[in-house]
Amino acid sequence: MERSRFLRWLAAAPLLAAAVMAPSRGEAQTPLRFAWDWAPQGYHAIWALAEERGFFRDAGLRVQQDRGYGSGDTITKVATGAYDVGFADINALVQFNARNPQQRVIAVAMVFDSNPAAVVTLRRTGIRTAADLAGRNLGAPEGESSRVLFPVFARAAGIDPASIRWTSMTASLRESMLATGQVEAITGLQQSAVFGLRAAGVPASEIVSLPYAAAGVDLYGHGVITSAAFAERNPEAVRGFVRATLQGLKAALADPAAGMAAMRKREALFDPALEGERFAMTRDVAILTPNVRRTGFGALELDRMRRLVAINAEVNRIENPPAAETLFSTDFLPPQADRMP
C-alpha cells in the first residue's frame, strides 16, 4: 500500500513542480514601461499578442505600452529612465552612446534583422533606379535614420550624395509632400513610407521602392533596447521581456490576423487590412531573413555590430565611436533552439 502511494506521488511530482514554478494570475508582477518606436503599425502586434496571450504575465511582468515619436526620442527616454525598455533603430545608439557615455543604452534583441530603410518615390517622377536620383529633390526629416544613412546607400549604389537636394519636413508630412509633388522622393522605413502613401490614397502600382539592403547595405534595423544600468539592476525583467517579445513575434508570424485583431482592440482607428499588408512587408524585408533562418530570432552578432559602428561613425563623423561590444548584449536571449523560426 505504501509503495502504491509512493508511485502515485512520484508520477504526479513533475506536474506539482510545474504548478509551483508557473506564475499564477494573482501573483505580484514586475511593472515595466515600454515605448514603441512610432505610432501603432502592424508590426506592433508582436507586443499586443504578447500581452493578450499572457506571455508578459507568464514572465512575471505587467507591461505598460506607449506609442513612440521616433527612435531618437525612444532612446533618450530609455536612457533617462522615463521608460525601462524600448523599440528603436539601433544604428542611432552609436551616436547617442558616443555623446552620452554615462547613460549607455544597449540592444538586447534584434527584431528587424535587415534594415528596411529605402528611397520611395512615384512612377510619375521617372525614377526607377538609384542612378535616376542624381540631381533630384528628396525629402525627409532632419536627423531621421534613413536620411542619415543615405550617403552609405549612395556609395553602395554608385551615385554622388552631393548631387541630391534635400527638403526637410516633419515625419507626419513626408508622404503627403511626395504625393502632392513637393518632393520627388522620400527616405524612410520601406513599410512606413509605402503604406503611408497607400493610406494617403496613392495606388500601390504607382509606388517605387529602392531598398538600401538591395544595394548591399548590410545593417541591422530596429531592436529591443534598454539602459545598461536598468539591465544590470533588473536582469530577470529584461530576460522575461525579451522572451515574451520573441514569443509574440512567433505568434504574430504564425497568425497575422490575430495580431491585427489584437491591435484593433488597443487602437480604435487601427486598419487591420492595411496594417496586415504592412506587417507582411515588414516580415519579408526585415524580419524573416536568411540570417534569421540560420541564427534564430533576436540574434546579435559582433561582426555585424562592428560594421554598423564603423558605418555610422563615418556618416555621422564620430571621432571616438563606442566599441561594438558596448552596444549590445546577448545575455538576455533564450537558447537558440527556442528562437529558431
Automatic annotation (TrEMBL):
<keyword id="KW-0732">Signal</keyword>
<keyword id="KW-0479">Metal-binding</keyword>
<keyword id="KW-0808">Transferase</keyword>
<protein>
    <recommendedName>
        <fullName>Thiamine pyrimidine synthase</fullName>
    </recommendedName>
</protein>
<dbReference type="Pfam" id="PF09084">
    <property type="entry name" value="NMT1"/>
</dbReference>
<dbReference type="GO" id="GO:0016740">
    <property type="term" value="F:transferase activity"/>
</dbReference>
<feature type="signal peptide">
    <location>
        <begin position="1"/>
        <end position="22"/>
    </location>
</feature>
<keyword id="KW-0408">Iron</keyword>
<comment type="subunit">
    <text>Homodimer.</text>
</comment>
<dbReference type="InterPro" id="IPR027939">
    <property type="entry name" value="NMT1/THI5"/>
</dbReference>
<dbReference type="InterPro" id="IPR015168">
    <property type="entry name" value="SsuA/THI5"/>
</dbReference>
<feature type="domain" description="SsuA/THI5-like">
    <location>
        <begin position="43"/>
        <end position="257"/>
    </location>
</feature>
<dbReference type="GO" id="GO:0009228">
    <property type="term" value="P:thiamine biosynthetic process"/>
</dbReference>
<dbReference type="GO" id="GO:0046872">
    <property type="term" value="F:metal ion binding"/>
</dbReference>
<comment type="pathway">
    <text>Cofactor biosynthesis; thiamine diphosphate biosynthesis.</text>
</comment>
<comment type="similarity">
    <text>Belongs to the NMT1/THI5 family.</text>
</comment>
<keyword id="KW-0663">Pyridoxal phosphate</keyword>
<keyword id="KW-0784">Thiamine biosynthesis</keyword>
<comment type="function">
    <text>Responsible for the formation of the pyrimidine heterocycle in the thiamine biosynthesis pathway. Catalyzes the formation of hydroxymethylpyrimidine phosphate (HMP-P) from histidine and pyridoxal phosphate (PLP). The protein uses PLP and the active site histidine to form HMP-P, generating an inactive enzyme. The enzyme can only undergo a single turnover, which suggests it is a suicide enzyme.</text>
</comment>
